[in-house]
């Protein structure tokens, strides 16, 4: 199953047009012209026909060069805004839609321009597909190579790097990239000999196409693509694209270094070399504005890689002085870079002086968007007053946060990762350091408030601030006896736990625990990766050791609070969102799910406890069993979903059918059913996908993909009748598994789409296991048990079944998110 991703949808956003019908527009995934072109015989052309690698060398006809060039130019003018307008990709795809296929000759240069625009549009479109974008851009590379058009080759390769770097990271995943097609194989077999014989051939581009991308990491594909782009551009005497590609190479390598501690040293050196090489290219840029921007970013990336004493660094800073226009924000940036050079060399006092100048200058700018960064750097240079500087950085960040764009305009990194996360993490660290003991609740409460603000900012980054405005967190006074809130916080050098617990007959207690052995972020992340890999993808018992160690670090400090009547609500940090907490076990082999109900929440501000007092729930089940071919990808037949839908509609009894079941449903079917009567539970037994960008989360219906933003609209009719849907169940494979920044993946999106809570799977589970778990869950829930309690008892039933369903690979895959009662 391919992995894809959602904002508020198209309504109310700039450039958006209302849809005129399920099959009316090219970029509507239900039945786009691209898809029509794939399966029909009409004399029209579109990217699916012209740009896929499998078609690159076998085209018999194509639109003429003038038509292709005009369509590409129009699309590029729309795409110029980049990620600042997430509807631009959809509008560009519409521009590139059906073209007349009238030419008998093939113009490779214009095809390359057309396919490059199509790939970029697919990359950023709300209704686009990362996998299709990769395919189109590889097609653009092949066309450009055949046309010997180095500029187009460089552009397509750069864009291929952007889309590859942004894909979710999954352990041992079935690749989101298609294996090398026969046409690509034909291309490389004919070109590899030429490349070996000709010194002018851009060998890195041939190396890229020679590689089987399906078995390479995102970083490997991105770095190969950027090397291709650099090689293709180097002979064109265009220093800006070269500097830009080297900057991107440095940034993606720094990201990979953060993910792989075992290779961090080597990767940091590679990132530094890319950045410093880029400085040499940037020095030749003729535009002073562009030259300053590239020099500053490249110098900053080299400093991020830990390079301070290379003589090229001082040269870069001197070049910045010559390129600056004297504006407050640019001078502040230059002062900060000078300060970082001194800070790296241990000259704290001199560095602090530069950072103070940067803060003063930035405060004079019309939009002081970097001022929090400079306060954070001053905290490093003035350790005696670190706490004051960090908290000032936090305060100013909270003021400017609404002004920050979601994405960096050049590197495409999320502004949350780039600008916000370091400040939030430092602020939490400072407050926890101020908590001299576990009884110092004042600093602990402040730390919890900062973490909650941190989580809200992360969710708003993933979904768009307009979709998820700030809310007040659940009040601790709302906790009932036996309920425990647990915030695990991953800091670079240690694990911190903040918890709030309500014991019978006592007030809510707030506590903070630091991991006794100083477990670092790197260590925790490796434990989670090993454990989830073994459970989700392996056939061994290697997960047991990791689960016991994670239990010791995460659960043992609150072990005394757990019991049969306990409810544990976890607000996980980073990679902990991938962790099946139910499968953690203590040294005696006792599972966590045996000791407490468990639920997970992306943020308390977006979670309410739920109402345990309710009538018999009304269920609407929607299932898809047939295979579906969409622009986003091809989705295989699901044989067990009809039976699953029957069981859901019958609340655990397939023969009862007390609810409604829509088989091979469409969006209109859902709309009609949700608008006709109140629904408490929406059970979706179909493919679902999350590809690392929340505005593209979707579920698959018959002949169409339904975005989560569209599902929100569908649920609106039900809300008018009976309030929020109590529970959405997404039983498709891996629906909760997104990347760490995605705020609980697709299931988190479902909660945002209008449900109090959601159940989703962390990895693929077979039909029989899913049916067994859901049968018991619905039976317990219909009896009046709370959501977390019903899920726990369903899992315990499987654990004690003494058959194949007792394997944690079956029951531990499912997790409850959101309301727990």
Explain how this protein is built.
The protein has 821 residues and is an alpha/beta fold. 49% of the residues lie in helices and 10% in strands. The chain contains 29 helices and 18 strands. The radius of gyration is 27 Å and the shape is globular. The two termini are 33 Å apart. The N terminus is likely disordered.
* Rg on CA atoms, Å: 27 Å
Strands of the biggest beta sheet: in what spatial order? Answer: 11-8-12-16-17-18
Percent helix, as a range, is 40-55%
**Topology, number of strands:** 18
Number of separate helices: 29
Topology readout:
Elements: H1 33-39, E1 44-45, H2 47-50, H3 65-79, H4 88-95, E2 99-100, H5 108-124, H6 130-147, H7 150-165, H8 182-197, H9 203-210, H10 218-234, H11 239-259, H12 264-282, H13 288-304, H14 311-323, H15 328-344, H16 348-363, H17 371-381, H18 386-400, H19 415-434, H20 441-463, E3 483-490, E4 495-502, E5 508-514, H21 521-537, H22 543-554, E6 567-570, E7 597-600, E8 619-623, E9 628-630, E10 633-635, H23 641-649, E11 660-663, H24 667-676, E12 681-685, E13 688-689, E14 698-701, E15 704-707, H25 708-722, E16 725-730, H26 745-752, E17 755-761, H27 767-782, H28 787-799, H29 808-811, E18 814-818
Parallel strand pairs: 3-6, 6-7, 8-11, 8-12, 12-16, 16-17
Antiparallel strand pairs: 1-2, 3-4, 4-5, 9-10, 13-14, 14-15, 17-18
Helix pairs in contact: 3-4, 3-5, 4-5, 5-6, 5-7, 6-7, 7-10, 7-11, 8-9, 9-10, 10-11, 11-12, 11-13, 12-13, 13-14, 13-15, 14-15, 15-16, 16-17, 17-18, 18-19, 19-20, 21-22, 23-27, 24-25, 27-28
């Amino acid at each position: 199953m391919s992995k894809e991703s959602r904002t508020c949808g198209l309504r109310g956003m700039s450039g958006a047009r209302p849809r005129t019908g399920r099959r009316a527009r090219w970029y509507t995934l239900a039945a786009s012209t691209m898809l029509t072109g794939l399966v029909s015989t009409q004399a029209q052309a579109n990217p699916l026909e012209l740009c896929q690698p499998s078609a690159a060398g076998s085209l018999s006809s194509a639109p003429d060069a003038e038509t292709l060039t005009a369509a590409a130019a129009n699309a590029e003018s729309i795409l110029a805004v980049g990620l600042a307008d997430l509807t631009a990709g959809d509008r560009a795809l519409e521009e590139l839609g059906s073209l007349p296929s009238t030419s008998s000759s093939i113009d490779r240069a214009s095809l390359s321009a057309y396919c490059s625009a199509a790939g970029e549009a697919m990359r950023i479109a709300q209704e686009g597909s990362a996998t299709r974008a990769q395919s189109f851009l590889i097609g653009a590379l092949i066309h450009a190579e055949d046309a010997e058009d180095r500029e187009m080759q460089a552009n397509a390769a750069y864009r291929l790097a952007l889309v590859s770097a942004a894909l979710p990271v999954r352990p041992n995943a079935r690749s989101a990239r298609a294996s090398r097609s026969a046409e690509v194989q034909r291309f490389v077999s004919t070109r590899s000999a030429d490349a070996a014989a000709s010194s002018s051939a851009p060998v890195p581009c041939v190396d890229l196409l020679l590689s089987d991308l399906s078995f390479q990491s995102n970083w490997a594909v991105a770095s190969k693509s950027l090397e291709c782009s650099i090689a293709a551009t180097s002979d064109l005497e265009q220093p800006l694209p070269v500097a830009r590609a080297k900057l991107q190479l440095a940034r993606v390598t720094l990201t990979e270094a953060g993910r792989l501690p075992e290779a961090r040293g080597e990767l940091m050196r590679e990132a530094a070399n890319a950045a410093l090489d880029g400085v040499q290219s940037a020095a030749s840029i003729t535009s002073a504005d562009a030259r300053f921007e590239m020099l500053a970013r490249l110098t900053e990336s080299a400093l991020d890689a830990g390079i301070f004493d290379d003589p090229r660094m001082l040269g870069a800073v001197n070049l910045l002085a010559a390129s600056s226009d004297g504006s407050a924000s640019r001078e502040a940036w230059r002062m900060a870079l000078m300060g970082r050079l001194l800070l790296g060399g241990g000259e704290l006092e001199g560095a602090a002086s530069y950072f103070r100048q940067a803060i003063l200058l930035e405060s004079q700018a019309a939009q002081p968007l970097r001022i929090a960064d400079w306060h954070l750097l001053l905290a490093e240079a003035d350790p005696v007053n670190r706490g004051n500087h960090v908290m000032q950085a936090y305060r100013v960040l909270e003021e400017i946060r609404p002004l920050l764009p979601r994405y960096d305009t050049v590197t495409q990194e999320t502004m949350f990762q780039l600008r916000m996360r370091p400040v939030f993490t430092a602020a939490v660290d400072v407050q926890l350091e101020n908590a001299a003991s576990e009884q110092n609740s004042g600093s602990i409460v402040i730390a919890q408030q900062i973490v909650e603000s941190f989580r809200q900012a992360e969710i708003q980054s993933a979904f768009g601030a307009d979709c998820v405005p700030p809310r007040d967190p659940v009040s601790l006074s709302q906790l009932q006896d036996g309920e425990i809130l647990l915030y695990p916080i991953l800091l670079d050098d240690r694990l911190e736990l903040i918890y709030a617990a309500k014991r019978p007959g006592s007030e809510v207690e707030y506590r903070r625990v630091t991991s006794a052995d100083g477990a670092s972020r790197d260590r925790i992340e490796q434990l989670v990766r090993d454990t989830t890999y073994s459970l989700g993808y392996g056939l061994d018992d290697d997960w047991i050791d990791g689960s016991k160690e994670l239990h010791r670090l995460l659960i043992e400090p609150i072990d005394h609070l757990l019991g049969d009547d306990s409810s544990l609500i976890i607000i996980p940090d980073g990679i902990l969102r991938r962790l099946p907490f139910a499968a953690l076990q203590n040294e005696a082999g006792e599972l966590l799910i045996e000791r407490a109900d468990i639920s997970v929440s992306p943020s308390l501000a977006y979670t309410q406890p739920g109402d345990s007092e309710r009538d018999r729930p009304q269920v609407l089940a929607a299932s898809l069993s047939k295979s579906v071919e969409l622009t986003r990808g091809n989705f295989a037949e699901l044989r067990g979903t009809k039976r699953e839908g029957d069981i859901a509609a019958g609340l655990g009894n397939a023969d009862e059918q007390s609810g409604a079941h829509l088989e091979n449903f469409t969006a209109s079917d859902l709309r009609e059913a949700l608008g006709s009567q109140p629904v408490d539970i929406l059970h979706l037994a179909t493919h679902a996908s999350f590809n690392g960008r929340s505005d593209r989360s979707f579920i698959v219906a018959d002949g169409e993909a339904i975005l989560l933003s569209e599902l929100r609209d569908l649920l609106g009719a039900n809300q008018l009748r009976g309030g929020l849907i109590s529970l959405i169940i997404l039983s498709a494979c891996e629906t909760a598994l997104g990347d760490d920044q995605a705020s609980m993946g697709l299931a988190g999106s479902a909660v945002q789409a209008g449900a109090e809570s959601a159940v989703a799977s962390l990895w693929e589970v077979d039909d029989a296991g899913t049916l067994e778990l859901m049968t018991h869950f619905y039976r317990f829930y219909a009896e009046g048990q709370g959501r977390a309690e019903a899920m726990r008892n369903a899992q315990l039933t499987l654990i004690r079944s003494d058959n194949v369903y007792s394997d944690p690979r079956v029951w531990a895959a499912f997790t409850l998110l959101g309301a727990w009662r």
